[in-house]
Amino acid sequence: MDTTDPFAANIPAPTAARPLLGLTVLVVEDSRFACEALRLLCLKSGARIRRADCLRSARRHFRVYRPSVVVIDLGLPDGNGTDLIEELNEASPRVDGILAISGDPHLEAAAMAAGADSFMEKPITSLGVFQDKILTMLPAERRPKGPRTIDTTTVAPDRLAFQDDMAHIADVLDDHITGHTLDYVAQFLSGVARSADDPALEDAAKALAEKRALGKTAASETARIAGLIQHRLAERIAI
């Protein structure tokens, strides 16, 4: 694994207005809606962003370059984000910062035990909070010098990214449904619905997760989610 991003010839110094200038952030996140929020936060902070939507894609990125910071969602379609956190924590040289993210705050302990430097609960929309979280993980020479005003700006991801997430889950439900599939759908939609302020979809995802946790059949919960997804996809025309 290379120690630098080959696409960045020079690393500019961070400033008070753009405290993450010079950083390359790899976001390992399967939700387009959540990733769009992180893209906006990085853009406003001066950081370059790359995206991987699964563990396999993330590992391909690391064969080419080493980002400054990696933001890892804990629930991914091909495995648990803690596995990647463990790999990065043991790698040499190690990336400057590993930030775990999840819509489930109970997963923080597992992320920290795997080697994450910090944890953030989704949705992540506050510019100042995001910047501070990243800066605390960096060595002193990568932080802006002098006083810095905390930016209270929040970002609002494009609703088209939410529609992309709905289309993704519709495709998942159209495929062969297994227990693993239902667990993934419940986890994915719970975080996306919370980020998009969609309580009906969030309640449906929680109901599915509860049935799965009890080992019961979840046909009615799955059908309810499928109906909600189709309804939201129909709203694409209005958007």
Automatic annotation (TrEMBL):
Phosphoprotein found in the keyword field: yes
Keyword Cell division: no
Top-level taxon: Bacteria
Gene3D superfamilies xref list: 3.40.50.2300
Keywords: Phosphoprotein
Record-level GO BP terms: phosphorelay signal transduction system
Residues modified to 4-aspartylphosphate: 73
Domain Response regulatory: from-to ranges: 24-137
Protein name: CheY-like chemotaxis protein
